[in-house]
Each structure stands twice: as C-alpha cells, then as structure tokens.
Amino acid sequence: MSCSSFKFKCLQYFFILHIFASTSILLSSTHNSSINNFLEIANSSEVFDWMMSIRRKIHENPELCYEEFETSKLIRSELDKMDVPYKHPVAITGVIGFIGTGLSPFVALRADMDALPMQEMVEWEHKSKVDGKMHACGHDAHVTMLLAAAKILKHHEKEIQGTVVLVFQPAEEGGGGAKKILDAGALENVTAIFGLHIAPDIPIGEVASRPGPIMAGSGRFEAKISGKGGHAAIPQHSIDPILAASNVVISLQHLVSREADPLDSQVVTVTKFQGGSAFNVIPDYVIIGGTYRAFSKQSFNQLRKRIEQVIIGQAAVHRCNATIDFLDEVRPNYPPTVNNGDLHEHFVNVAVNMLGINKVNSAVTPSMAAEDFSFYQKVMPGYWFWLGVQNASHKRLQSLHSPYLEINEDGLPYGAALHASLAASYLLKYQQDVPGVERRYLDEL
Ligand SMILES: [Zn+2]
Ligand SMILES: [Zn+2]
C-alpha cells in the first residue's frame, strides 16, 4: 500500500467514522427527546385525568380470569376512539392492537386484565362495586398504562419504525392467559416483548429489574388422604386421616430444608387443609393442597416427584391411601420468568434516560412469586420489570394480593411513558442493528 493511498484510506475511514458517530448522536438525541416528550405527554393533565378515569372505572368493576368481558369492551372502545386497529377476541377476552407501519419488525407490550376473588377492604370513592372481587394485583393499572402508551404512540405513529403490538391479555392470575394468547398464534412474528408490574414497595418514578431469572416457576398440587371415619372417642376403630395429613404437611417441609441445595431457592407451601366438621367425629378423608416453586426445570421436576412420594408414603405410614392431582388440566405450570440480557441493556438505557440513574435498580433480588409473562419468554426474547407505585404516607405495609392494597396513581404516567419508549426505541435500534430487514405485512401476524 502506497503512502498516498494509505492517507486516502485514512481519510475515508475518518469520514465513515465521523458520519457513523454523527448518525448515532442524531439517533440518540432524537431518541432522548422523544423519550422526554413521552413522559411529558403522559404527565399532561389531559392524559393523566383520562388515565385516572379509566383506571378507576376498571377498579370499580373487577372481573376474574377469562371473564374480563366488560374490561375488554372498555379497551376496545378506547382503541376505537384512538383509531387503533385490533384483533378480538383472542383467548376469549383478549385484545391485540397495532400501531405503526403495519410492517415488521413487530415489538409487543403486554398488560394483564384480570382481578382476584377477594373482598376489597379499602374504603374510598372508587372501591370495587362487586362483592368478593378486587383488583388487588394492579392489573387495572396495567391496562390503563398500556392504553395510555397506545395514545402516546398513536400521536407519534409516523416516527415508529415498524409495528407496536399491544397485548391486552386475560387470566394472568392462575389461568395462564399468556399461553392461550400464544396458542392462538397471535404473536407469531413478534421479535421482542416487554411487560411491567406495579410494585407497592417501590417509590414513584423508580423501577427495578434484573437480567436472567427474576421470578420462579410455579406449580400446584392437591391430595386426598383417605382413612376410615368413626367416633372420636373410639379411635381404635377408625383410621384417622387428620393425623396422617398433619404428618404429610410436616414431612413436605423437609423437601426444601433437607433435600434442596440451600443456594438453589425453592418453596413448598401447604395452603389448604380441609377435613372434618364435628368435634366428636373422625372424618373419612382430608384434602390438602398447596404450591411449589423453583427456578430451574430440574429442581422443579424433582420437587414435584418428591411431593408425590412423600404424600403417598406418609399417608401409608398412617394406614391411609392418598391420591394426588397436579392440576395440569386446570392450570398450566408457570415457567420461571427469565429476562433477556440484550433487552435488559435496552431497558436500562431507556429507563436511565427517562428517570435518572438513581431511579433504576438494575439488580433487584429475584422473587419466588410467578408470572405467566414467562410463557412469552419461552418463545421470544422478553423483558419484565417492576414499576414504583408506593404510597409513602401509608403506615400499613402495602403488598400485592392484599385487600388493603392502595396504589399511588402518580406512578402510572411513568409506566405509560416507559412502555411507549421501550417499544419505539427498540424498533429504532432494531432498524439500525438489522439493516435491510425484510418487511412483512400485518396479515402474517
Ligand atoms: Zn397477582
Ligand atoms: Zn399481577
């Protein structure tokens, strides 16, 4: 290589690098300004007041697993007003909306819609109007934030470099609605999915997540332990299932404390113990039930195998018979929720830009709770994070699934803006990283 051609090459590289650098700066500044703008829109009184009215309407009318008909209707009527096209019904009550070019790449945002079968104990103007049903997991807020993200994204539709797929999903609380959405083929060409969950113990404007496992895999069991009923005062003529079941419960506790690796988190909890109805009668049988949790497939399967062996074995020690049902037909086991590493990086960038570095906990401790968002992550890269909705003034400890849960609605604009920014900037980045991506039409979704 001659000296002059070397100089020319250097100059060429300089220009390429320079152009590349300015393009990156341009993209990142566009990116930053739109992110800031998204939070501003979400916080504007017009959007904020609208969000409050939606959330409160859903909160007053909670619907359980696969019965979210009115919630689904409300979502569709809001999407109609925004002129956002959607598919319905998907997985009974589910709604899948589309914003953007209608072409690939497709990125999905998910909100679950169902409430819990429990009585709200919070006395406030918008308390649940349905006895025995309550939005105690904040899915009313999730729906609201995704609708607000739709509003923001629709406003910026011309800038969207692909299609944002809005997933309003039924039946997260035990019904595996996510799996039903996937089984319906509704997300076949989606390249990534984001989900969030309100966290009543995290301050407003803050988020928390981590790469890798963040929630455990979860299964259920129910066992019938049968003996022989009789007079409580003549136990020698009976086979007592109460005592047998009591020993089963104690023995099940040894699975985690004595058999599991202490560094491999696992849980076995018996939550149900039903038997007998009189003070002086030994019943014929007892029903027990509960949940088991683990992060790895191997530990999960091992727990399941040992739960069965312990129940049958301990029942036999007390001359009882036992049958076990892992309820696979009623509810699928939830896999562990495992966050994709590249999407974690993307999330941290977006969240730090929007909220500031001190407001983003990127190494939160994993939880033994479970989420059906994990079904999406089994078939595509997915990312799930906690969003702060803490009521700082409250003395009572706030937790999900509590009849006293009272979320701070000031957190909702952050969730809406993050949803919108995560999706819009993901598509921008995707176009940069995968140039010349083949464009596919919406019909293929
Ligand atoms: Zn829940
Ligand atoms: Zn939930």
From TrEMBL:
Signal keyword on record: yes
Any GO BP annotation: auxin metabolic process
Span of domain Peptidase M20 dimerisation: 217-311
Cofactor(s) it depends on: Mn(2+)
Pfam families: M20_dimer, Peptidase_M20
Cofactor note: The Mn(2+) ion enhances activity.
Annotated binding of Mn(2+) 2, by residue: C137, H139, H197, H401
Residues making up the signal peptide according to the UniProt record: none
UniProt keyword Signal present: yes
GO cellular component: endoplasmic reticulum
Gene Ontology molecular-function annotations: IAA-Ala conjugate hydrolase activity; metal ion binding
Coiled-coil region: none
Annotated transmembrane regions: 12-30, 90-109
Residues the record lists as binding Mn(2+) 1: E173
Alphabetical UniProt keywords: Hydrolase, Manganese, Membrane, Metal-binding, Signal, Transmembrane, Transmembrane helix
CDD domains: M20_IAA_Hyd
Organism superkingdom: Eukaryota
Alphabetized InterPro entries for the sequence: Amidohydrolase (IPR017439), Bact_exopeptidase_dim_dom (IPR036264), ILR1-like_Hyd (IPR044757), Peptidase_M20 (IPR002933), Peptidase_M20_dimer (IPR011650)
Family: Belongs to the peptidase M20 family.
NCBIfam families: amidohydrolases
Entry-linked PANTHER family: AUXIN CONJUGATE HYDROLASE, PEPTIDASE M20 FAMILY MEMBER
Name this protein carries in UniProt: Peptidase M20 dimerisation domain-containing protein
Organism lineage string: Eukaryota, Viridiplantae, Streptophyta, Embryophyta, Tracheophyta
